[in-house]
Amino acid sequence: MKYPNLFKPIKIGNTLFRNRIFSAPIGHPDVTLDGNFSDDAIAFYERKAQGGAAAVTLGEAIVDSVYGKRHAFQISLDNQNVFHSLSRLADSVTRHGAAVSIELQHSGMQATPGIVTPGFCTASDIVYGPSDYELDGKKIREMPEEIILEIIEKFARAALFVKNCGFTMVTVHAGHGWLLNQFLAPRLNRRKDKWGGNTENRARFVVEVCNAIHRLCGDDFPVEVRISGSEVLEGGYGIEEGIRIAKALDGYADIIHVSVGGGIGLPNAQLGFSITHPCMFKEDGVNVKYAAEIKKHVKKSAVATVGALSDPAMMEEIIASGKADIVEMARGLVCDPDLPSKARDGRDDEIVRCIRCFACFSDLVKHGGCFCALNPVTNRERTFGRLLPEAKKQKVLVVGGGIGGMQAALTAAENGHEVILCEKSGRLGGRIRCEENVPFKKHLKRYIEQRERLLAKAGVEVRLNTEVTPEYAKSTEADVIIAAIGAVPLIPDIPGIDGANVIGAEEAFLNPAKVKHSALILGAGLVGTELAIYLHGLGKKVQIIEKIAQFNHGSNELHGMAVKSKLAEEGIEVSFSTAAVKIDAGGVWCKTPAGERYYEADTVIYAVGQKPLTEEAMALYDCAAHFYPLGDCVTPGNIGDATAQAMTIARNVGRF
Ligand SMILES: Cc1cc2nc3c(=O)[nH]c(=O)nc-3n(C[C@H](O)[C@H](O)[C@H](O)COP(=O)(O)O)c2cc1C
């Protein structure tokens, strides 16, 4: 076995975990009107158990619907109606040999007053926290002791409830700025009674929750406690306090799960999200150091680490060197639920590594479903698991070797068709290939190379440097044409755009040396802003101008937030409501809200959007019996749009 430590079972309480890889808490707001998990949500969690994780943890289930709810689509564990769906969920995970856990949460100061839970109750208008506080205009009252005691009982009753549903363990959320973390944080907990003051007092709430759960559910029922080992942000508590918290919980929690972040009320709180959920600008395993430090001080409880993990070799080293006893992953398993079984079998090169693009979380917030840009099956397990009528074998010509074209070719081949994939350029990967040397896109480069190997393995005939004209398409005698020919960069109509000092974003990514010293980027979309971060990292002076009054980051709001934070951190200036009027050899004349301004730059780079190659795709529509255009040549979209559409269309071939 390649990773003997990672796959060494561990016994906690009465439970044997088959390896050291846990699926970290992921909330799933796809609940029915009566507050139950949908069948799709159940299938989403089941898939992680099937892929080999030792434990699968459901996120944010609320123990107290009166004072503890943040939003309407959180499961309420004080609602007996959820018994059946939780039982089905527990069964769907444990049948695969994995433990199933659920995160017990109370929002405290972050609760939404008066929130109505589907099919259940309406929350109180009063919001309690450890101490009186004003949070974003919301008045927080100090929680009376009788309510603290009531909530401790609610945590315990929720644990017993899920134990009766078939859950193996629970995960108490005492991190990320939720109620128990608010009690732990010295700046929020200013109480003078036994629930405030020194670390022991501030940790009393969590300790009593652990004790109450063990009392009701038995000492052998594992209780994992998720803490923020450090808030990381300036003004929040640091690792020294994290160590004291962990020492206070040692032996009460069976597992101390060391996450990071929080930051309620801090001026820089918005940066916390990409610390708790490391964005693509942070290195792999960036938060392991906090768990490793805590592990040195914890004697009785097991210690888990989490954050930006997806490399089994790194995870093996974490366990082998004693930095932690357990590694937890959220996005790594959203992207590839089979990561554990592939690592176990030494098939590392088959693991699809998360690019940390935040499509999953942005989709979760926006659409209630945790979809993955690289893995179209995630959160569509039931859709893609459905039996289809048998496919009639077809000859399929896929035109365009970008992300969508590669996915379509692969799926078509896996469904038994004869597939030719033609790509105009000399390499597969499409437009995104130009980013292959960008350090924060290294997992994307790996993904494209992996696709190339998979296409070869699936028997797809790849024809590079091949432009598909209608004549060429007809000559292949394909039954089906899938046109995934993408889009080309829009060139803005500005005097001077054809100057020798002007290049497109793609060229700048490919040849950063063309930017001598300073660049002005036209467009604050994702392409322009990520390019700015890349060039800045190479030591160039970069500025961005944007015509509209805000960033143009599309639907992936959380990645947009990470990009914004990174631009601010690096001091890259973005001027909004600023339109380029004329480009000359020394820079760009712009119209700004304050009048005309000249931006000096030796290189001007346009990144103002894409023009779909619709006409070129349409030229192929009558070259085969069936014609399917997909991806950017229909409407420019993101990677997730392309992979999902490609897999769906390719599966339909020969069937519908
Ligand atoms: C889609 C999504 C939903 C999440 N939901 C929760 C949640 O309900 N509770 C929680 O404590 N953490 C939640 N997390 C945070 C993860 O548990 C994890 O701490 C974080 O994503 C860092 O790990 P990763 O880099 O492996 O994704 C969520 C993360 C993602 C990506």
Structural notes for this entry:
With 656 residues, this protein is α/β, with parallel strands linked by helices. It folds into 3 domains: 10-383, Aldolase class I (TIM Barrel), CATH 3.20.20; 390-488 and 614-652, Rossmann fold, CATH 3.40.50.720; 502-608, FAD/NAD(P)-binding domain. It is built from 22 helices and 28 strands. The strands form 7 sheets. Strands 3-4-5-9-10-11-12-13 form an 8-stranded parallel β-barrel, surrounded by 7 helices. A 5-stranded parallel β-sheet has the order 16-15-14-17-28, covered by helices on one side. A 5-stranded parallel β-sheet has the order 19-26-20-21-22. α1 (39-50) packs parallel to α2 and α15 packs parallel to α22. The longest helix has 21 residues, at 145-165. The radius of gyration is 26 Å and the shape is globular. The mean pLDDT is 96. Residues 24-27, 59-60, 103, 173, 176, 226, 259, 277-278, 306-309, 329-332, 360-361, 364, 370 line the site of flavin mononucleotide.
Strand-helix topology:
Blueprint lengths: L9 E3 L2 E3 L3 E6 L12 H12 L4 E8 L20 H12 L4 E7 L22 E2 L3 E3 L2 E5 L2 H21 L3 E6 L4 H6 L14 H4 L1 H14 L5 E6 L10 H11 L5 E5 L13 H4 L11 H8 L6 E5 L5 H9 L5 E4 L1 H5 L3 H6 L14 H9 L13 H5 L9 E5 L3 H12 L3 E5 L19 H16 L3 E3 L6 H6 L4 E4 L3 E3 L12 E3 H6 L7 E5 L3 H12 L3 E5 L11 H14 L2 E3 L3 E6 L2 E6 L2 E6 L2 E4 L3 E3 L1 H5 L7 E4 L9 H14 L4
Parallel strand pairs: 3-4, 3-13, 4-5, 5-9, 6-8, 9-10, 10-11, 11-12, 12-13, 14-15, 14-17, 15-16, 17-28, 19-26, 20-21, 20-26, 21-22
Antiparallel strand pairs: 1-2, 7-8, 18-27, 23-24, 24-25
Helix pairs in contact: 1-2, 2-3, 3-6, 15-16, 15-22, 19-20
Flavin mononucleotide (FMN) binds next to strand 3, strand 4, helix 11 and helix 13.
